[in-house]
Design brief:
single chain, mainly beta, 5-stranded mixed beta sheet, 11 strands
Length: 173
């Protein structure tokens, strides 16, 4: 099973269309972690499972989303209500209470991936306004391949090209 995860495009419609054109037929689910600043019925957002970000004023997205794709349960949040700038512990506790194996979040505009307590935590970074160590890339999104034994995470740039230094593999417990 493959999931594409994107966040924080902040109104950049073109990049979402390009990502969908390139990957929609290659993945099982498209996830958006908020701050799209686009209506959920816009062409660019109709195929995404999306949550509301702190800049999605007046838009009709849920604050969090749980979804199951091929026996893998995802928790999707933006992160602004979950203290992601300080700690992932609140998200870990929420994921544990919901039985989620993968947590997708945004808000920080900084890509991040880790495994804790058997849960994969992934922030795809901002596709349009990146911050932090990898901001030089100019925006990122992530593809996650989930097998019975592993989570395989690859980050991509705005040209839909993989970034070789950002390939991660985690064994599932």
């Amino acid at each position: 099973m493959k999931a594409l995860i994107v966040s924080d495009n902040h109104g950049d419609q073109k990049i979402l269309k390009e990502i969908q054109d390139e990957f929609a037929t290659q993945v099982d689910v498209l996830i958006h972690c908020g701050d799209s600043e686009l209506p959920n019925d816009s062409v660019e957002m109709t195929h995404f499972q999306a949550v509301k970000g702190n800049n999605d004023w007046g838009l009709n997205y849920p604050p969090q989303l749980t979804l199951t794709v091929e026996d893998t349960k995802f928790l999707v949040v933006h992160g602004d209500h979950d203290q992601v700038n300080y700690s992932l512990t609140p998200l870990m506790l929420k994921a544990q209470s919901l039985g989620a194996q993968v947590v997708c979040y945004g808000h920080t505009h900084q890509l991040a991936v880790s495994m804790d307590a058997g849960i994969l935590f992934i922030n795809p970074g901002s596709i349009s306004l990146p911050r932090g160590e990898y901001s030089r890339i100019g925006g990122t999104f992530a593809l996650v391949e989930i097998t019975k034994k592993q989570f395989i995470v690859d980050y991509y740039n705005r040209n839909c090209s993989p970034i070789s230094e950002l390939h991660f593999e985690f064994n599932r417990s």
